[in-house]
Each structure stands twice: as C-alpha cells, then as structure tokens.
Amino acid sequence: MVVVVTNLSKAIVAAFRTFVFLFEVLPTLPSRPFNFITPTPVVQKLVYPTPKGWAEGDVYRPASPGRHPGIVVCLGVVPFGVEHPQVPRLGEALARSGFAALLYWSPNMRDFRLDPDDIEGIALAFGSLTEEPFVDENRSGLLGTCVGGSFALMAASSERIRTGVDFVAAFAPYGSLSSLARDIGSSTSLRDGERYPWAVDPLTRKVFVHSITALLEASEAAALRDAFERGESKVSADGWSKDAQAISALLAASDSDGAERAIESLPENLRESLAILSPVNYLSDIRAQLIAISHDRDDLVIPVEESRLLRTQLQGRAGLRYTEFAMFQHADPTKRRLSPPRLLWQLSKFYFWLYAIFRRAMR
What are phi and psi of 272, to 5 degrees? Predict the structure, then answer.
C-alpha cells in the first residue's frame, strides 16, 4: 500500500512538473502563473573538460535544497545565436520544473559543423554535471534538439557514461548521415517507401556542406563551401584530391540515384566518417532505461523519416517512447496556425511525450 501511494504521489508531481515545463518553454502559452508559484532558478557557471580543453557552461537549477535530476541539454546548431531569449527560457523552464540543467554549446556546431569530438564532449559535460552536490546522478540524462538530439543519442552510448545515463531524449534528430546526405543531394525525402520532393532548408544544406568539407584540406574545403553556398550546382575539381572530387560529386548530385551513386563512390575513409556521425550505429550501446524520440511530421530541416529509422532500429527495445506531432516547424510552435481542437490534441501528445521523461526523473 505504501508503495502504491508513493508511486501515485510521484506520478502527480511528475504531471505537475510537466505542465510547468510546457507552459514555461512554449512562448505561445502563458507562463506567468507558474512564475509566481515556482522559485526563481539559480544560475551558475560550470567549468568542465572537453576533448580540446576546458569549457564553461550555464547550469540552471532549482533554488530548493537537495539533489535534483541532472540533464545536459544539447542545443545543436542554433542559427539565432546563444543570446536569443529562448535559450535561457529553456534553462529556466527545466529548473522551475525540477531539473538541474547544463546547456551544452559546441564551438563546432556554432561553425555549422558536425564533429565526432562532440560525442565525447557531451559525455564529459554529463560526467561533470553529475558530480555536482546538487545533482542526483542516479536520475540524470541527456536531452537534445535537431542534430543535438542525434549527438545526445550517440553520447549516451559512450563507455564513459553509458551506465550512468538513465534517460535520453531526442527531438527531431537525424538517424543516419548517409540517408540524410541522400535526401539533401536529391532534394527529396523518403516516406512510406516512396520519394517526395523536399525543399531542403538552407540551414540543413549549410551544415552538411560545412561538415563534409571539414574532412578536406583547408583550401579545397573553402573552395567547395564558397561555390555551393553561392548556389553553383557543379564545381570543377580537376587537380583536386580524390576525397575532394568525391565530395564535389556528392554535393552536385541532382537526384536520389545520383546521390546514392556518389555516396557509394566515396572513399572508405569518408564513408567511415559518415558512419561515425550516424546515431543508428550507436543504439546497441545505449543503456538508458528510457529512450524518448519525437519529430514533427512536416519538419523542414530534418525529415521525419530519420526518426522513423531510429524507431525501426529500436523496435522491441524496452523503454522506447516514440511520438510524432503536427504542431512544430522544427521545434518552433509559432510558425504553424492550428485550430483550437487540433492544437489541444497536438499539445496533449507533446505533453505525454514529455511526461515520460519527467516521470522517469521522479523515480
């Protein structure tokens, strides 16, 4: 009987904290009432190691005493900059709803590049956060949005922290950089076994171009970036290295077959680089008790099929929570107008996806 009452009370607290977070983080919902009944969060700096030296991040934590579940938030590529008001709003929302949250910023992603160093960087940040006296290391995890969600999944598999990550949540991640490269190259996305036109978001193309050209010698990388960012469909690669010629052919692909041929023609070292940055290759090493993945069906930055790929690979895995929405435009609910009934339905789906995370943190 005592166990039942305890579980019920934890479920009620988790439900309330999920409401707090939802109202605090979504700019379309009124957050002021919850500001009056939740203490103002404490914000402090945390210095932690990275593969390339030391970094400093902001930790948002509840003002109440005791140990709280920790969460490292992997924000990914944020085009509006670190000073955007939505960034501290996210940290404060997590703190007001009971988490001690470290916002992880990647210099690589600020430069629009995906770098495997960030996998270990996130793991190191998580290790440092969970050593803080106000964090309960047994109830802590990772949260990421967009490519940050992909890196959160990969970091959760790190031998350094895999047994300590209790939950990992990814919002609109990609699953395979190879499949995403095919979509970008062909300007199509796969859905239900068929390909449909996809107007590739400029940010998606920029990150992909910067990431794959980062594998080249500096002058070749700069030339390819400049050419494709000017909108040139083809670049003369005569006299360039084999890697540069292969990457140029991939970036110049105009359909799915051409993109597939270009990917298959990549030198082995480049194919390995794509594999190293693909979460599907890390899933078997994740030990988290909860893996929560969500995606908007009409996401313009990362096609929903990328999350569906992850769901397929995780099928049968205990603790998987997968949800699709029709409310966001890549994590931004302000860009879509929905009727009140439909909005309420989509918000409820988002709420219950979040609740799974908050309930896990309440155990």
Answer: -65, -35
Distance CA 156, CA 295 (A): 19
Q: Can you give the pLDDT of all 363 residues of the chain as single tens digits?
A: 545 548 889 999 999 999 999 988 887 777 667 777 788 999 999 999 999 999 999 999 999 999 999 999 998 887 555 566 678 889 999 999 999 999 998 889 988 999 999 999 999 999 999 999 999 999 999 999 999 999 999 999 999 999 999 999 999 999 999 999 999 888 888 887 888 888 888 889 899 999 999 989 999 999 888 887 776 666 666 778 999 989 888 888 878 888 888 899 999 999 999 999 999 999 999 999 999 999 998 888 999 999 999 999 999 999 999 999 887 766 565 566 778 888 889 999 999 999 999 999 987
What domains are there in the chain, each with its CATH number? 2-174+291-361 (3.40.50.1820), 177-276 (no CATH)
Q: Is 345 exposed, middle or buried (0-12, 13-18, 19+ CB in 10 A)?
A: middle
Q: How far is CA 80 from CA 39, 75, 87, 92, 335, in A?
A: 28, 12, 10, 19, 15
The whole-model pTM stands at 0.93
The answer to whether 354 and 22 are in contact (CB under 8 A) is yes
Please write down the long-range contacts of 260-269, taking CB distance under 8 Å and 24 or more positions apart: 260/182, 262/185, 263/178, 263/181, 263/182, 267/242, 267/243, 269/215, 269/243
Taking the CA atoms of the chain, what radius of gyration do you get in angstroms?
21
Q: Tell the burial category of 81 from Cβ atoms under 10 Å away from its Cβ (0-12, 13-18, 19+).
A: exposed
Range list of β-strands (E), the chain? 42-50, 53-61, 68-74, 100-104, 135-145, 167-171, 188-191, 194-197, 290-296, 320-325
